[in-house]
Amino acid sequence: MYKRDIINFLCIISFPIYGLGTYISAVNSPSIGYLISLAPFIFIILFYFINSLYSGGFDSRVNKFYYFMLLFVLSSAGSLFIALNKGLPEATTILTFTKSLLIIIPFHAFLIVVLYNNTTREKLLQVLIISLSLLLAINLVGYFALGLANETHSLEGRLNFPFLGGFYSGASLLAIINLLLLYYLKRHWTDPIRFASLSAYFLFNLGLFFLINSRLTILVYVLVMSLYLLGIARMRGIYLLSLFTIPMLLGSALPIYKILQLPGLSSMMQRVDIEDVTTFNGRAFLWQDAMNWLLDDRQGWIWGNGYKGHYFLGLIDDVAKMWNEKDVFHMHLHSTSMEILVSQGIVFFIIFCIILYGIYQYFKQMSKDGRSEGAFFPVVIFFLFILQIDTFLYLDALGFVIFSFMVAIIAIPKLEKMRMATRNAHKENLMVHEFKPTEADWV
């Protein structure tokens, strides 16, 4: 067995074990659950460390995106300690420490995975799909065979996966797997057996997707599929457009309400809470409070207010009162971008945007070039929009772990680029020392 196979095996089991740890965090002990989730990532780093000691050196091939990501994950962990220092009711020292590790360590483990697969980067796509598929499989077994439910957030009558951080994360997981499958569906469309099996998996996931029935995630998924299949996703302006998702949704409430009041739709919508639809299941109230803070108040907007900053600012007390929620610190803003802005400030939000734009540009180019890494491009587009309306990419959530995997890919220079740089340097060295014949040499 090659060393790369050991690393890839640990990476494959990392997401299923992350899921098991998430469940233990909800039903037993958060800190123990976090440590279980961390186990495969720690083993990857230990394996690399021991191997590097025996081989006589550590590989430090990273670019600027490593340092941007390092700053961001450290600021994320720092926001937890700020909240602990401010007296967040749910925070303890051990919980804060272990959660910080779960934010920082996976990214560094994925860097090692990329290093070991730098000569065959298509393997990275295979590893991620297998790992996410195993995570999906244990959730299906847990829900249908063992009768388990999501202990953090679940809705009666809807499919909810027990080994994820929240109810809506299941829909995002299915969306990401299907978006990754698009590459293989296109690649194997001339192979009837492979194409049929991949299509069956794709359609099976779609069925599960609608059983979860997360309307906003469905909306984002349909939007991303449309943008990608029509080739619009590669057009300029998509990244910038995604940053204004929340203002656009808030501005669309009145038009949606008027459309639903049309004669053909009003009778059909009698069974549906129109306020629920036009406020996006109440999320619009949270987004509006966050927007008001950003435009009018801006307390702590440069460096942030710490994790759950909205609690310390009393930002969403009105929504908590509306929903009869006594423990405001249990609530969140239903938006990764808003959480980062409030908790970590504009400085680290800009750093996050730089990283996001980096993976957007990189995988967009890979998609144009027809490389296997281009398979990640529709997932990046999905991230651009889902992070605006959900906390799927915030802190230790599943989406951020997947995001860390993708950032690790762009943070390690490709082997052919390094070889080209070495060759260029070698050529320049030869030119400097090039033999110049004198007049005597011609005689």
Structure description:
The chain is an all-alpha fold and 443 residues long. It contains 21 helices and no strands. Helix 10 (245-251) crosses helix 14 (283-297). It is globular and about 60 Å long. The termini are far apart.
List the helices and strands and how they pair.
Blueprint: H1 3-27, H2 30-55, H3 64-86, H4 93-116, H5 122-145, H6 169-187, H7 192-212, H8 215-229, H9 238-242, H10 245-251, H11 253-260, H12 263-266, H13 274-278, H14 283-297, H15 309-313, H16 317-322, H17 336-368, H18 377-389, H19 398-411, H20 415-432, H21 439-442
Structure described in brief:
With about 450 residues, this protein is an all-alpha fold.
User: By helix and strand content, what is the structural category?
Assistant: mainly alpha
Biggest sheet architecture:
none
Order of helices and strands: HHHHHHHHHHHHHHHHHHHHH
The poorly predicted ranges are 430-443
Helical stretch tally: 21
Number of domains: 1
Q: Which percent band covers the strand fraction?
A: under 5%
- What would the average pLDDT be, to the nearest integer? 89
Distance between the termini: 62 Å
Task: Please give the number of β-strands.
Answer: 0
What overall form do the CA principal axes indicate? Answer: globular
Q: In angstroms, what is the radius of gyration? A: 24 Å
